[in-house]
What we know:
Layout: E1 9-15, H1 22-38, E2 43-45, H2 57-63, H3 71-83, E3 86-97, E4 100-108, E5 114-119, E6 125-127, E7 133-135, E8 147-151, E9 154-158, H4 167-175, E10 180-182, H5 189-207, E11 210-213, E12 217-219, E13 225-227, E14 231-233, E15 239-242, E16 248-254, H6 257-265
Helix pairs in contact: 1-3
Amino acid sequence: MSAAAPGRFRAGLVQLRSGRSIAPNLEIAETLIAEAAKAGASYIQTPENTALMELEPELALAQAAPEADSVPLARLRELAASLNIWLHVGSLAVKLAPDRLANRSFLIAPDGSIVARYDKIHMFDVDLPDGDVYRESATYQPGSRAVLADLPWGRLGLSICYDLRFAALYRALAEAGATLLTVPAAFTRQTGEAHWKVLLRARAIETGCFVMAAAQGGVHENGRATYGHSMIVSPWGEVLAEAGEDPQFILADIDPAQCQEVRGRLPALSHGRAFEIEMPAPADSKVTAAV
């Protein structure tokens, strides 16, 4: 792969299989981040739950810390500065109260400073057909704000995992100037096989944005199976890079000018109109007018 041309940048997505202990998870993440940087990536993204994949609320709370005391965050900030990269930490569990966490994403600049924070808005509270039950809202406090941040190459819109199913969020980010959308995730294998790729491509096509989604993949220490298949998708919906299931990193050279090119050819983003919803009365219903 040739070096990125001026005005372009090389994006790297790190795919993990995080376990139930922070230290080994960080070692693997740091190794893959460094390898992606060595391969020329100037923006690198990690998945949701980068430092810990723990489903038991008590154990997750026991290992979490407030942002100011987060060891994973401090180490990753140091790493970004040492590698001189933009590091997007897909999410870390941040303690808000003794019994509440935030699922928080961090965008870290090449000097190690935190440029943006995003708390996952949509909580994964579902009962899957295979019997798996998830109740994120029992432990996590949902966010309430969409977040944008400017990179040297374009405006970045942040989201996390289950947010992917809520198209209005991504349209709002694009209408606010985003050309790069991010979806660090830990999609279950079952839902990922059915919907992951089509949803990522749809979000790119609908908005005329690049979509970058680093994922967790494989069977984790806690028994959860995630889908993997980290992906980078072009504004036209083309898959530029895709991982398998195992821990690894993928790369793609991004040309931000493609966003305006695609939006010029298919300006659906600028064609949105306000509308009302009408529900016609049933044919056999009787309407009585006041006289």
